[in-house]
Amino acid sequence: MRIHDVLRGKPSPEVVTISSSASVRELLALLARHNVGALIVSDDGSSVDGIVSERDVVRRLVEDEGVLAQPVATIMTAEVHTCEPSTGLNDLMELMTEQRVRHVPVLSEGRLTGIVSIGDVVKHRIGELEFERAQLDSYIQS
After folding, report:
1. CA 132 → CA 70, 88, 137, distances in Å?
2. d(Cα 107, Cα 36) in Å, to the nearest integer?
3. What is the CATH number of the domain that holds 122?
4. Domain containing 19: what range?
5. Based on the structure, what is the number of domains in the chain?
6. Do the beta carbons of residue 113 and residue 119 sit within 8 Å?
7. Backbone angles phi, psi at 128, to 5 degrees
8. 62-92 confidence digits (pLDDT tens)
């Protein structure tokens, strides 16, 4: 299985981005509106300047309650681990585990084309296992 297979199974191909100059309060509104746990920080909508998650907000909020008015750039992670549509699912799972990340942007020829979360990976893997189980049941019963 490849990442492009996971992306095809997502309900929407849309990748929600936010500008690095947007406020953390705006970030929270977008996270809630789209029911996602992280956004790609991109000033042009196609490059990856960073990534920012709910966890980033919570960790900073504990230190500084004024963070909500600050720009996203102050809390984002600038070093982002990415993959390509042709990346194998096992390779992505290994990356997520080793780097302890839950969201990985997908780049095609350097342009943002998708994002895969740990939830997407688990959902896809469960689907594979259910298919294999059904095939084995069919084989045993025939």
Report:
1. 49, 19, 9
2. 19
3. 3.10.580.10
4. 3-141
5. 1
6. no
7. -60, -45
8. 999 899 999 999 999 999 999 999 999 999 9
